Hints:
By secondary structure, the chain is an alpha+beta fold. The protein has helices at residues 10-18, 22-32, 43-51, 65-68, 84-108, 118-127, and strands spanning 34-37, 59-64, 71-72, 74-78, 136-140, 145-149, 160-165, 173-175, 178-183, 190-194, 201-205, 208-213, 216-226, 229-232, 234-240. The protein has one domain (10-240): q2cbj1_9rhob like domain (Jelly Rolls, Sandwich). It has six helices and 15 strands. A seven-stranded antiparallel sheet has the order 1-11-7-15-5-4-2. Strands 3, 6, 9, 10, 12 and 13 form a six-stranded antiparallel sheet that branches. Strand 9 and strand 10 form a beta hairpin. Helix 1 (10-18) runs parallel beside helix 5 (84-108). The protein is globular and about 50 Å long. 35% of the residues are buried.
Amino acid sequence: MNIAPVDTGPDEIAGHIARIPTETLEDELDRGGYAVLPSLVSPRASNALVASYDDSTGFRRRIVMERHGFGRGEYQYYDYPLPLIVDALRTAMYARLATIANRWNAALGDDARFPPMHEAFLARCRDAGQTRATPLVLRYGAGDYNCLHQDLYGEHVFPLQLAVLLAEPGRDFTGGELVLTEQRPRRQSRVTVVPLRQGDGVVFAVRHRPVRGTRGTYRVAMRHGVSTVHAGRRHTLGIIFHDAA
């Protein structure tokens, strides 16, 4: 998808995301469980998010991954209120993905359905005790990596999420590729490496996705991680649409 970058204005971001071709977005997600959105965030906005990482103001928790067996590196969860660009991306992208999420759940036989507006879904999360913000920034240095995982956080799980690469491969870091795996029934796992540039976004399945086979639709388990960074620093913005308990 060839779309132009924006900076931080919520109206510009909403309009930008609204112009993403629906057919292309749905086709890529259905075919491989992910869709790359080139130049979703401008270099200036990406650099500003990276620069804000060392200011603990606005973050609610810092996680050192090695202490928990998650890999190596660290990340910080934003607290509410979210930064303007993060909130705008989360709100506008949810509105584009809710219909796809409902179609996926229907195909998988899951009863959960998602309202068209993000605030209504967050209200459902709050009623279930999921009140903590989940958008985060991840930072990796040389030798760091992220083990394969799923971002669940509670009873209510939106089946898609967004990641935006904030650093430029080859300039700011080497290595550190985004890795997606899928486990189909009675088959070995398949691995996909997703190439990204600074500001590129990628939407991908959180936990499962439907795949149509010769005998109907079946459930494929998805996980994601980051391969080892060889040099430099890699920063990523992660946007999960459900909140945490």
